[in-house]
Each structure stands twice: as structure tokens, then as C-alpha cells.
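Q: A reviewer asked whether we had any structural model of the full assembly, not just the individual parts. We don't, so I'm hoping you can provide one. Inputs are below.
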Amino acid sequence: MSQTETEIHAPSTTQAPKTHELKPEPSQLGFMRPDHSKSVIMDWLTTVDHKKIGIMYGAIALFFLLVGGVEALIIRTQLAIPENDLISAQRYNQLFTMHGTTMIFLAIMPLNAAFFNFLVPLQIGARDVAFPRINSFSLWAFVAGAIVINFGWVLQALQVMGLFEASGPTAGMTDLAPAMGWFGYAPLTGTNFTGAGTDFWIMGLQILGIASLSAAMNFVVTIVNMRAPGMKMMRMPVFTWMTLVVSLLIVFAFPAITIALGQLMFDRCFGTNFFVVAGGGQPILWQHLFWIFGHPEVYILVLPAMGIISEILPVFSKKPLFGYSIVVFSGAVIGFLGFAVWSHHMFTTGLGKVATAAFSLLTMAIAVPTGVKIFNWIGTLWGGRVRFSAPMIFSLGFVWMFMMGGFSGIMHSSAPADAQQQDSYFVIAHFHYVAIGGIFLAVVAGIYFWLPKMIGKMWKGNLSTWVAIFSTVGLNVTFFPMHFLGLLGMPRRTHTYLEGFGWETYNLVCTIGAYILAFGIFLLVVDIIRCFRKGEPAGNDPWDARTLEWATSSPPKVYNFAKTPIIPARDALWEDKYGPENRKVTYEDDHGHGIHMPSQSWMPFIAALGFIPVGLGMSLMQAGVPYMGYVAIFGLLVLGFGIALWAIEGPGGYHMHPEVDAA
Amino acid sequence: MSETELQGDGHSSLVINNKKLLMWLFLGSDCMFFGTLISTHLIYRKLYPESYDPLLVFDLELTSFSTFILLMSSFLMALAVSAMHKGELKSFRRNTIGVIFFGLIFLACQVYEFAHFTNEGLTLSTNTFGSTFYMMTGTHGVHVAIGVFWLICLYFYSYTGKMDAHESAVDVEVAGLYWHFVDIVWIIIFTAVYLIEYIPGLH
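A: Here is a predicted structure for the entire assembly that you could use as a starting point for your response.
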């Protein structure tokens, strides 16, 4: 036992858990630990509770979803009519670059992380994740990366307001926001083409990668090692399974982008020749490294969505998931094959016939497990008692819309067809059907499903129907015409177009659709705020659900389960409610040992904070701003200092002895 | 008691310890890091066989010596882990100091090598060979340096009286896993980057 533990035994006569009797203890460093703080801000900054971390991930991600959405709206407004001059070509490049980067790394991935964090420990019957302080570090490193990557916008805003000028020591600061596309193709990222924005982008992505990697490793350990007794692998909820697959994808896919970004940074800062054509570098290398990461990334984004759908459909069909094991297996196969198809993003680069044919074939093969999943979802609905509650409406929308994105995806797998569609609006139509029609709808379904569990309040009214109508109609009106635009030859990433190609009407329709979609998202935000402010208490299990997270109170207590559950079967809660006697969830006797709680800590927050000076310092150093190398070194010292104190302070922890509640 | 064991609360479904599993995952990820670096090097080497003759600067005797030193440090690391498992602190310290010392010799060789190569005119920006070589071996060197620093921390920690066979053996074993991995990566780099250049008629 560490010396810092406190043993507080609540008298057995009192009803409520005596959490307020706990006092902070000094850590091995001698400082007081930030436990049981009265200050809300301090409590949230130092929290190691997976539920609070999940909620913070979700809130920040929703903010960036709105930021990315505004960027998209400006893009669409610019394209509404031919030869529009709302924004300059350079500003347009910055907008589509940051729109893609923001949506992928700052909106969808953290939204998925929000669900991972909040749900996985609850679904497997664990107290918390395996490494609570690393979890906190992942969150704050993500925030640091988001700040660095968006710093160009801040500077640009200051510039517009006349508060910042690129002169004197900052004379090298040109192109403040990144403007080379979210996949940053070489040689466009070279110093002779782009300026400071690219450096912010490189450093920001690098930091986000560290955040994702540490979170992913944490979740693999959690899922493999922290399951409650009886929670065998094939009894885990599908969402937890998909979290495991996605975490493994992150562990093995992110190194490629980390190294590629490192090489790019060396090219820009230290004059290496990895992607510099004049020095013998091959820009195609960047494409390979980027897509070796980039294609698994696509499944990193979409597999959690599939997990969410596989949770929701059975609940609202009152049937177990059809073909549980084959759905799990398909998810794993999709993840595995995801590593073997990266070159289908590069069919037009001249890989040679054999390589192109092989990647074409493997890409088609991915349609098989995906199709299996779709059929299993339909099989789940078949003969079920379907309830059209809000989560179900969005899930059904997902199945349909995602399938449409899949159909155009299959068209791309054929290399000759892809050669025609490459870099046209057809591609944009495809991946937005997958991203918005698929991932976004699934995430919204997940929000409608799990928010009552997260905040303990039930949705009020049926605004969700209007959210569903506006977002689905909006997304179809926006992106369906883009198929035609693409086939008519409209290229991606052009800030305007001339009259007379037959693109005018389609573009106008797309823009109108974008505003309809935006209104749908606005209604979603209104609905979430209304749920927070006016929602009635949700109760533990408002949807008559199947998995273990619904056995906890809403919102779950800080310790999740007063006693460790023993899992007798898949769909543990459903079996407990309606199953035979031998399938009831039982609870382990803790022999008065209580629940061990990890202590909160400032150190992950401080360590992650060090990333901000590292990222900004490196970027500004490249732009020639004096003394910035020292700022970067200072950041590294903060990072190292934070990690050192983190190690020395010791994990600490205390015990709670709650009365056994309904759980 | 360590954080992970407390967190585990006896639920562990696999026999493997949380920290050890985390390290294995990190090493899996690290394989991809080095895989990317080494393949970048080999690709550029194959594309531009004539651009640079590394035999002008390579010193096989020195690199073989530092490779041997790193291998032997892995042996000492294994002894240190075994000593910790038995709770023999003195033996643990003796072997750990050996690992640290050998690691520092390896780093010194690398610093000498880098300085020598730079004097011979091969820098990061000379050509693609310089870029890939320095970045790859440099990343490995950073790994070794971190490992040395980690072991120094463990060494001094052993004097606080908080280390015992029951609790700390896993911590030492995790450091050992890392150290062995860094060693194995060097064996691969030594083969694929240094030795391969000595095959007659390769270029």
C-alpha cells in the first residue's frame, strides 16, 4: 500500500456515500493532492475520472465540429455562384485545409474518444481505465495540439484587426494558416511554397498523434485487462470491441504519420532532403507514408460509428444483435484490411499495373465485411419490435446513408473509374456521405442514446425529429448533386469556377443544402442545451437497454459500480432483467475492502501544457522569429518536468465505502 | 503498491501485468516507427545507389565494437531484471550500473561517429543518404539516451528503500523490455544499414 492512502469507513447507518468526508492527502512530493477540491475548475483540470474526461472530450469536439462547420459554410458560400469573390484563393485554400484537419482530428476523433472514455469502462464493468493519469494526459495533449494547429487562425485574426504585423523579427511569418490540403502533399509543404501555417499544422498534428497514441494504448490495456469477472471477450458489447480494434489501428498506423511529419519538419527546419525534389527527395514517399496512416485512419473514424449502431439497433428492436460474432469478426477484418489498401488513394500516381490491380482487388474485398455488417444490422431489425425513438431514427439514417457512401466507394476501387473521378467533386460526395451520412449521424445517434446516462437527464420534446429531418435532407441536398458535379468534371480545391460548364445550378443547390444541414446541427445544439437545462431525471435505464453501462445510476457515480459485477452472459443487463435465474448479474463481495479510487493529479495537465511552447516555438523558429528555439526547449523542459514529478508523486489513491445502491 | 495493480483490483482477465502490456503495445508501435525510418533509408539507397558511397565514412571496427557493447548491455540488463526478481538489490545495482555504463559508451561512439561523418562532409542536408542516415540512427540514439536516463532514475530510486522484489520487479522488467527492444532495433540497423554496404558488387 502506498503511504498516502486514507481509509474512511462510512458508518453503516448513513444512506449517502460519505465522499465529502474525504480529505486531500499529501503526495510523495509533499504537496497536497488536488482530490476532493471544492473548486470546480481545479477539479476538472486535475480529474482522472474517465467519465469527466469523456465529457470534456465531447464538449471540445462539439466546439470544433461547429468551427469546422463554419469553415465549410464559408467554402460553400464562396462556391454558390460562379466567379464569386467573397474570399481570396489563398483564404479558400486555408479554409478547406483547416476544414478537413479540424473535422477529422479535432471533431470526429475526439467525439469517438468521448464515447470510448465514457462508455468502455462502464461497459466492461471496470472502475476506470487502466492508467487514469495517462488518460488525463491524452486529453490535455489533444487540447494543446488543437491550440497549436489553430494558432494560425488566431494570428490571422490579429492581423486583420491590425494587432499583428509580419515585420521586423516576425518578417518570415507568411501564410499564417495552413493552406496545402489536409493531407499536406509534398512538395507543396516545402518552405519555398508554404509558410508558417504549415509549421503549425505539422507540430499540431504531431502533438495530436501523441495524444491519440497514448489514449489508444491505454484503451487496449483497459479492454484486455480490466474486464469484470465473466466478461469474456465474446461477451463484450460490440462498441467495446470496435474500440479495441480502433485502438490497435491507432497504435500501428500513427507511427507512419509521426515519422513522415518528423521528416517534413526536418526538411523545413534543418534542411534535410526527404521530400525536397532539388535534394533528390521523392514527393511520392510522402503520399505512401501519409496514406499508410491515412487509410487506417478512415477506419479509425468509422469503426466506432459502426460500434454505436450495433449497440443502438438491438435496444430499439428488442432483439439481440443478429450474428454478434460475425459483426465483431467483420470489424476486425475491416481494421486488418485497412492496412492493405492505402494505395487506392494513389491510383493515378503510376504505381504500375500489378500494384494497382492488387490494391484494387483488396479494396473491393473490404466491401465484403462491410456488407456483412449492413446485412446483420438489417437482420437485427427483421422481426424486431422496432421503436422509432431518436437514437433509432439516426441509426436507421446511418445504415442507409452510409450504404450510399459505400456504393460510391466501391466505384472508386476500380482503378480505371477512379482515374476519372480522382480529384473531382465525385470524391467529395463519396467521403462526405461516409463522414456525415455515416459517422456524423452515428455520433448524433450516440449522443441521443447516451447523453441521458452521461448527465442523468432525459430529452425533452421531439426536436430530435427536426434535427433528423434537417440534417438528413441537408446532407443529401448538399452532397448528392456533387456526384453529378464530379462527373461533369468540376475539380476539387478550386476557389471558383467559370460560367458555362453546367455547374451553376448544382453548386447553388449544394450551398442551399449546406445551410439546411447547418440548421439541423444548430437544432441539435439547441436540443442538447435544452436537455441540460430542462431535462427530467432520466433514471438508470430509460431505453430498456441491454448492456452493463445502463446498470449504473445516471449519471454514474464516480466509482461506477459499488461492487464489481460478475457477468454471466452477453447483453448482461438484458439477461439480468428478463433472462433466466442463472443469468442474473451478481456482485462480488469486497470483504469491506471498499473501492480504491485513484488520486487526481496536476502533473498530466502540466506535462501536456509543455506541448504548447514546443509546438509554437518550433513553428516560429522555422519562420525565423528570434529566440523561439529556446521557447521550444522550455516547453520540452516543462514536459519533462511534469513527467518526472508525475513519476515521483506516486499514484496515491484512497478508498470509498459506498452503500450498495440499486447497482 | 503500483498504480496499475491497484487499478486492477484483481479483475485482470489476462495474466499479463498492465504496465507490461502497455510497454508491449508501445514496442509494437515503435516497430512501426523504426520500420518507417529504415524503409525510407533503404528506398532512397536503392533509388540513388551512386549518390554517395558510405564506405568513405563508415568505420566497421568502431560500429562493430559499439554493437557488441550494446549487445552486452542487454545481457547485463537481463541479469539486473533477474536480480530484482530475487530481491537482490546489490546485484541489481551492480548490473544496472553496467548497463548504464555500456549505454553511455554506445552513445559516445555514436557522437564520435556523427562528428567524424560531419567532418568528412556528410551532413543532414548533403544528400538523401545523410538525411535518412542521421534521422534513423539519431532516433535510435535518442531511444538509447532515454533508456540510460530511465535506468539512472531506477538506480537512484533503489536507494530510497521503496524497491522490493514484489513491487518493483515489474518496473525493472518493463525498462528491460524497452532496453532489449532498442538493442534489437540496433541489430537490424547494423545489418541493413552498415553491413549490407560491405557486400561486394552490391552497387
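A: Points you may want to mention in the reply: Confidence is low (pLDDT under 50) at residues 1-13 of chain B. Chain B touches chain A at residues 1-4, 6-9, 11-14, 16, 18, 21-22, 25-26, 28-30, 32-33, 35-37, 40, 43-44, 47-48, 51, 124-125, 127-128, 130-132, 134-135, 153 (CB under 8 Å).
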